[in-house]
Structure formats: structure tokens, C-alpha cells
Specification:
Order of helices and strands of chain A: HEEHEEEEEEEHHEHEEE
Oligomer: homodimer
Chain lengths: 273, 273
């Protein structure tokens, strides 16, 4: 499964080769390189891909948690997906990503065959200017992974000049989509869950060592909702919680351009400073 | 490890017997029985207990995710904790809870040896009346597990009379602690993460089949903060996200009586109706 130049970078990065029926092999995704190892969102999407392409898969993703245990080395890696339990309409998976027999990441994925039910939402999409009114972030000089996204900052961006002081909170709102454009699917939605800059950078307006340790995404979108979204911009809002003794948490929502909540996503991250 | 009447119900419920060095045995916690199987919070606390009492444990819990794959039968169960990765100051665990070789729950736990860092919070504890100004919920007639908590509803309770109509949102604020009182530790904090009534009951003010599928808690409290809290009331706030095709999500915060954020907790739950 060699990446061809006609494939989208996300499809190249998340591609897995079936080794022996029980484990899969992936390649270090250089196009999504981050400060140390690859962008966590693309690791998460790759693990999700191992489930979604598995012959035993039943249903669509509803919840996924990924734990980043160590930086991925610039080498091939193995993914071992395991069905923990299959019920009538739900399925639980556990996954490991390893290099040289050592665990680099673990994940759990919950799938369900959804049925119709009462529908509601407790919050509405924030009112913000449409994407066409906001210049995209100039990603030259950013880490490789950022260049695979188009981000239009509504508020709460990072000022690399160092001229902006500490903020009261780390609220960010941005329009985001894959770059080049790619119709939304569960893989790209999972990857975009991790596309916010570290909350501690936004709150303090300074860079420091920081990285996601554990990330959980709840999918409210089903295939039909993803199809309707297509390759349009997603409104992404993230907030910080508490920053205490090397760890802080982030809550975020991803809204469709029609105002439907596609996913909510949470993470805890390490920081030093 | 037979439960003695002098032990707190939570300590009895979360007790595990070491079988063979690699797996542990627990007993169905009748004192925390729920509609189907036991209260999820006590299953989560029991899995956390398997890590915290393990000889290889390093550090204090920072993040935990539990996936409820099937109802626990009224019988003994086995817990298998596995160290996925130990780093210099962090450790990742993966756990399975099984009955008759079938998986009932899976979990991941992330531990860290925390060090001092910059500290901040993006939000403050909501201003609410003190616990002494609010009558505790009369738990007679509720499921067994509820009777192990003292809950004082500030807003967003459930009206069992059926006389309250659908609400605009499912915001709940309550003071909660173990009953009888028990000094706060990571086990009780993990259990209290799940102590909110289902958001869909609060939003619609009606009962229907509902249950947590996956729950993630981020601990901001360290041992010292837990010690300061002692057995005082915790201010717990929960909100609903989206309710769509059988699943909805909940975000919540647990605040110390001194106004420190002890934990943030998220879950996705099934509902039918």
C-alpha cells in the first residue's frame, strides 16, 4: 500500500497493510510530522481506520479514546485491533500500536448500529462570521501537520510574535477543513478532533513543551450527516479547563456548516513550564 | 476479602482478591445495584482500585476511560490489569473485566508523577447556596446505589411525579458526597463521576431505558488536594450535549468545597425513546 501522489495526504498517512490477519503495518506519516513524532490526530485516525476496515466491524463509530504512551519513532509500526465484545447492535474494540514490541499508543473504539430516536441539543452553534469573511492562517513556518489543514481563526489564535500577553481563558473558535479539501468521513473528523493548538499556548501566549496524553471523541454524526457536510468548513470551538502540575484539559465541539453538532472531543495534555 | 460491616460500602464494593498474580476477583456489588447490573461508577472505581493497589503502579491517576460493554451478571468477576507502558514519570494501563471469559468492561488508566508547574483555570466554580441551605434528596424508593450518596440538588433535578415538562437543557448542579461520609480518595472521586442521573431524564423529565456506554474522567486533584477536601460535599455540575439516534453525551465538573476543580468527566450514554 504505497502512497501515490493522487491520494489525499490523510489517506496516505492512515493507510495500513494487512500483515497476517491479526496485525497491520503502517508507515511513519512524515506529511503529518509534529514537534516530536506525528500529529496525534493522524495516529487516532489510523487506529480508527484499522477498525473501520476490519472484516468483523459492525456499526459506525460513536466513541473513541486514544492514549499516547510514547513518541512514534520514524519507522514502520504495527497495529493490533481486537474485538472485545460484539452485542446485537454494538461493538467494543481495543487497539495497540507498537514499535519493536513496545506500546506507542492504546485505544478503545465503540461502534453502534444507530436507530431513530428523540433528537435534541442543549446548545446551539456559536454565531460567527462565515469562513469567506476570514483569511486562512498562513501556515508557512508551522509544523508539517498544520499544512494539511486550512484554518480560519475567528478568535483565540496564537500570536507567534510574543507581543500578546497572558489571556483570561483559552477559548478558540476557528473554521477548519482538510487541505486540500476532502469529503468529511469518520477518519478526518477524528483527526480534526486534535487540530487545536495547545490550550496552554493560547492561554499564556507562549510556546513550551506540551503534548496530548489522552483524547476522547464522541461522534454525533452518522454517515448521512458526514455526506451532507462534504468538504465544507467545520466550526471548531475549544476551551481550557484547569492547568495544574504539568497537565491541563481541553473540551471542544465540532459543528457542521449547517449548525449540527458533529462531534464533541476532550483531551488531557502534558505541559512543562 | 470478605466485606465486614465496619467497612464503608464503597470499600466493600471495590474490594478485589488477588487470584494468581495476574488476575483479581471481585464480587457483584449489591449495595450499588442499578436498574441493570451495578452502578457504573463503582465498576470504574473497582478497575481503578486494581491499578492503584498493583505492585507495579507508578504515580497518581490523571486520566481514566471505562467502556461498559455488557451488564455485569450477579456473580463473581475477574479483573486483568496490564501495564501497557512505563516511562520515567508516567504509566499507561489497560484493563479488562470479564465474566465466563466474556468481556463486561474495558478501561485505560494513565498515571503520572506530577511536578510543580504554572497553575491556572479557565473557569470558576459556579456560585450556589452552601450545602447546609439545601435539603438532601430523600433517596427512599431510588435504586440501591443512590442510597450510598447524599445529594443536595441546587438545580436541574428529576421530578418523579411526571408533572414537570420537557426542559430547554439538562443543566444540573448538586452537592454530593458518599453516604455515610468517607474521606475523598481517587476511588470515590472516580465513582462520583458517574453520580448524575441520565441527562435525557433531566432534559425530558421522563424515565426511559438509558445507560452509560463510555466514561472518561480527568483528575486535576492530587493526593494533597483530596486530603484537604476530606469528607465535605463536592459541587457537581453536569450538562447535556446532543441527543441523536440513541446516544447522547454529558460533560461535567467536580469542584472541591474550597472552589478547586477536582476533576472533569465526560460520558456518552445510550437511550431508547
Amino acid at each position: 500500500m504505497t502512497g501515490s501522489s493522487s491520494m489525499h495526504p490523510l489517506d496516505q498517512a492512515t493507510a495500513l497493510e494487512n500483515l497476517d490477519g491479526s496485525s497491520l503495518r503502517g508507515q511513519f506519516p512524515y506529511a503529518y510530522a509534529n514537534m516530536v513524532g506525528p500529529y496525534g490526530g493522524v495516529i487516532a485516525a489510523t487506529l480508527l481506520n484499522a477498525v473501520l476496515t476490519h472484516p468483523e466491524r459492525q456499526g459506525e463509530p460513536v466513541a473513541m479514546t486514544v492514549n499516547f504512551a510514547a513518541p512514534m519513532a520514524e519507522a514502520a509500526y504495527a497495529v493490533v485491533p481486537k474485538v472485545s465484545r460484539t452485542n446485537r447492535s454494538t461493538q467494543h474494540w481495543t487497539l495497540e500500536l507498537c514499535q519493536d514490541e513496545a506500546v506507542v499508543a492504546t485505544a478503545t473504539v465503540f461502534l453502534a448500529v444507530r436507530r431513530d430516536s428523540w433528537t435534541g441539543a442543549d446548545t446551539a452553534m456559536p454565531e460567527v462570521p462565515s469562513p469567506s469573511h476570514i483569511e486562512p492562517l498562513d501556515t508557512r513556518g508551522y509544523m508539517a501537520w498544520v499544512q494539511n489543514y486550512q484554518m480560519r481563526m475567528v478568535q483565540g489564535g496564537f500570536d507567534p510574535s510574543g507581543q500578546t500577553g497572558e489571556q483570561d481563558n483559552a477559548l478558540t473558535r476557528m473554521w477548519v477543513r482538510d487541505h486540500p479539501p476532502r469529503p468529511l468521513d469518520f477518519l478526518s473528523l477524528m483527526a480534526i478532533s486534535d487540530s487545536f493548538f495547545p490550550r496552554v499556548f493560547i492561554r499564556r501566549q507562549q510556546r513550551m513543551p506540551a503534548g496530548t496524553v489522552s483524547m476522547t471523541t464522541y461522534f454525533h454524526a452518522d454517515s448521512e450527516m458526514l455526506r451532507r457536510q462534504g468538504d465544507r468548513d467545520i466550526l471548531a470551538e475549544a476551551r481550557g479547563g484547569r492547568y495544574y502540575r504539568n497537565y491541563y484539559d481541553q473540551d471542544a465541539e465540532l459543528w457542521s456548516s449547517d449548525g449540527d453538532l458533529l462531534a464533541t472531543t476532550h483531551q488531557i495534555a502534558y505541559f512543562k513550564g
